[in-house]
Amino acid sequence: MSSDLQQYEALRRHDLQDVLIGVRYLLVYYTPEQLRLLPSPEDLVFFRSVAEAEGAGYRPIPESLHLTERIAELLLAEPELTVQGLAERLDQTAHQVIRAFKKHTGMTPKQFAQLQKLERFREMLSEGQSITRSLYDAGFESLRALYERSSGFLGMQPRVYQQGGKDMTIAYETFETPFGLMLLAVTDLGVCSLQFGTFEDLLADLRQEYPKATLIEDASRTALYREAVLAYLRGETQTVEVALDVRGTDFQWKVWQALRRIPFGETRSYAQLASLIGEPKAVRAVAGACASNRLALIVPCHRIVRGDGSLSGYRWGPDRKREILDWEKR
């Protein structure tokens, strides 16, 4: 057995000492006592000293990330825990719990717990259980609860998308931002497009994407979503938390969710993102999923750079990408 595998097995047995553990896709290092959620062996690297770890480009785990992992550990075991319950267990305030968790995951603890329920529901359905049985076993109290809470994760029904949005009504509006004009389009379930560009090009693109849908300009129907975008642009939030209604493959959704977990003001390479989703060899596919994103700022593909740190492509232009990144890092 190689030295790294021996150390990994010792880590699993809680029998590893005098070693620091680096997590490749986070570029942070832990002491054995700090590592709450054990990654795959290929995602770990072991160091003999702080100097060795930091010389390799790793940094100590931030306290907020450590808190986030403790929250996730508790929610994986007890998804019904409230924010107040988490705060009491961790000797933190409710505000500290929400702020730390949202910074590193792009979602609230409650949303994370609902996602765990959704994943259990999917697993039970794939094992052949009926929808009703799977629903209650997964912890949803009603079909309505499942539908409402999955809208941000499951995306548009394939049949609807494949029919060009037939029988759908899509409301849209345009508004100015510090980074240019944006068009926001929403269905009854959530945002289906948020893009930069000129009015003519953006409307033409929306019509091409949904040729059979009814498009109406209606700022009253998009107002809540617009306010979430503007709150981010005013620096009041670090993510744009809205329900989504876009079509994507399972792989694309996996990449888009990983993009939403990149902290505000930070960047990751395509290779790091591929490792983050457990597909370290799928770098090209990850780049393709980033390029297919039609939800600017909501799914922050602007936070992806090349391995050497230089800017990579961006659907809405490299200059705009640089402006957004510079603004986030201020």
From TrEMBL:
GO biological process, any: methylation
Keywords from the UniProt entry: DNA damage, DNA repair, Methyltransferase, Transferase
Molecular function terms from GO: DNA-binding transcription factor activity; methylated-DNA-[protein]-cysteine S-methyltransferase activity; sequence-specific DNA binding
Catalytic activity: a 4-O-methyl-thymidine in DNA + L-cysteinyl-[protein] = a thymidine in DNA + S-methyl-L-cysteinyl-[protein]; a 6-O-methyl-2'-deoxyguanosine in DNA + L-cysteinyl-[protein] = S-methyl-L-cysteinyl-[protein] + a 2'-deoxyguanosine in DNA
CDD domains: ATase
Broadest EC class assigned to this enzyme: transferase
EC number: 2.1.1.63
Domain HTH araC/xylS-type span(s) in chain numbering: 66-164
InterPro entries: HTH_AraC, MethylDNA_cys_MeTrfase_AS, MethylDNA_cys_MeTrfase_DNA-bd, MethylDNA_cys_MeTrfase_DNAb, MGMT_N_sf, WH-like_DNA-bd_sf
UniProt cross-references to Pfam families, sorted A to Z: DNA_binding_1, HTH_18
SUPFAM superfamilies assigned: Methylated DNA-protein cysteine methyltransferase domain, Methylated DNA-protein cysteine methyltransferase, C-terminal domain
Family: Belongs to the MGMT family.
Name this protein carries in UniProt: methylated-DNA--[protein]-cysteine S-methyltransferase
